[in-house]
Request: fold
Amino acid sequence: MKDDDPNAAPLLDGRGLYRFFRVGEDETAALRGVDIRVRRGETVAVIGPSGSGKSTLLACLAGLDEPSGGAVHVGGTRISHRPEAERSRLRARHVGILLQSGTLIRHLSVRDNIRLARAADRHGRHRPVTELLDQVELSHRADALPQELSGGELARAGLAAALANDPDVVLADEPTGELDGDSEQRVLQILRRRANDGRAVLLVTHSSAALSIADRVITLHDGRNVDERD
Ligand SMILES: Nc1ncnc2c1ncn2[C@@H]1O[C@H](COP(=O)(O)OP(=O)(O)OP(=O)(O)O)[C@@H](O)[C@H]1O
Reply:
């Protein structure tokens, strides 16, 4: 099967995903049978109202959380329903994560944050730190601490760390949330290029600029996919 065959195995594959949360007597069904696939070369956006399950879905796809039912495969390997240590290892190998809250460690420089992200996958496809800094146009800020960066620089530093192991899949939760137009465009261009280079990108977003780089948009409502449009 060729990579450009629409039936080729997706790089990110979540099937029949359920996630229940129990708080006291109450049970919330955050996901109720979500199916999501992102193929090589694709950027897919997930939208939906507050509480529809977007963050829960992203956490399950990243192996940060376990679905109550269904299965997640990344790069052809099952990441769900494994011990935490194994999920961490697979995550470091296959997944780059960008969270709104940021993923950088405060007391480490941008350069050391990227090194740390690389070290998480001991045998991985490490990209040179200088190349990563260059790609996000932050070579001149390599020694800065995260809190010394502007919002746009911080987002790009997080992106460099997420790309450090050349992941098959990038999962991003509102990656351009607080950014002005120029910074937003720079981050989106890097993400779009990732997909064009044959990886897969999944974005949870409300931004129309971010939606414009997506090949497909998936809408969640009450923990279910309600439709899909190109
Ligand atoms: N750890 C948790 N414990 C209990 N309920 C949770 C937990 N995490 C999420 N939920 C519930 O699951 C549902 C989906 O939440 P989720 O955060 O995935 O939605 P979302 O679409 O990302 O929302 P938003 O756009 O507001 O961030 C909500 O009803 C939420 O209250």
